């Protein structure tokens, strides 16, 4: 159980909150970050809970919070949010060690429809156009070209439609595991072979109900230590 979270100067107002989790390799602990939004004055408060402690710690407010509507994405010791204003989209990154924010540059994508993800343990961008999804991956800090486009994936045809496919995992031989939602809201998995440009839909055994998909990596790190 987490300790109760109290918001400074807010009384009984119930905010809208987004939770994210990640691992701080410097302190070797898991941390939960919650961003609480207050609609009355368009402000926010950010608190961090370190697993094994008995209290939340408030850190600096998240900039550009009014147009963030999804939890952050954890990659390489940072939590990253996609924020939008009236003119463009930006990526806001929280460094776990320093507990400070920075705005990250992003590639010059040809669409306003894009999301954040993680591939090969790196922050990634999935940019959706009418017929393709472009898969970008962030390079190491200090690189003159901070982003690399990995794939230009055409949409597959499924039951007469072309659903948006979101990458989940990339194998060593460039097979891209992706998922998409059909009209019944089920999550379907598909494998895209980037070398020959073909799709293969694996058969899932004994699963005939609503499902979702995440990537799980085994770890020797115990969340209870």
Automatic annotation (TrEMBL):
This is Putative kelch-type beta propeller, F-box associated interaction domain-containing protein. Residues 14-222 form the F-box associated beta-propeller type domain. The lineage of its organism: Eukaryota, Viridiplantae, Streptophyta, Embryophyta, Tracheophyta. NCBIfam families: F_box_assoc_1.
């Amino acid at each position: 159980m987490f300790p109760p979270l109290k918001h400074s100067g807010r009384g009984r107002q119930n905010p809208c909150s987004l939770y994210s989790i990640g691992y701080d390799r410097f302190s070797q602990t898991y941390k939960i970050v919650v961003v609480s939004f207050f609609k009355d004055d368009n402000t926010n408060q950010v608190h961090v809970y370190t697993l094994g402690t008995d209290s939340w710690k408030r850190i600096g407010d998240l900039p550009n919070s009014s147009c963030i509507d999804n939890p952050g994405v954890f990659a390489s010791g940072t939590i990253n949010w996609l924020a939008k204003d009236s003119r463009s989209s930006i990526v806001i990154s929280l460094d776990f060690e320093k507990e400070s924010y920075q705005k990250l540059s992003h590639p010059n994508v040809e669409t306003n429809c894009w999301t954040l993800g993680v591939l090969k343990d790196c922050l990634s961008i999935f940019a959706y156009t009418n017929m393709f999804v472009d898969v970008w991956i962030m390079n190491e800090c200090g690189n003159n070209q901070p982003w690399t486009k990995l794939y230009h994936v055409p949409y597959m045809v499924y039951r007469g439609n072309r659903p948006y496919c979101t990458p989940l995992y990339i194998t060593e031989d460039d097979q891209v595991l992706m998922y998409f939602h059909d009209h019944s809201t089920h999550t379907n998995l598909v494998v895209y072979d980037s070398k020959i440009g073909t799709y293969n839909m694996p058969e899932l055994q004994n699963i005939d109900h609503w499902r979702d998909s995440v990537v799980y990596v085994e770890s020797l790190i115990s969340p209870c230590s």
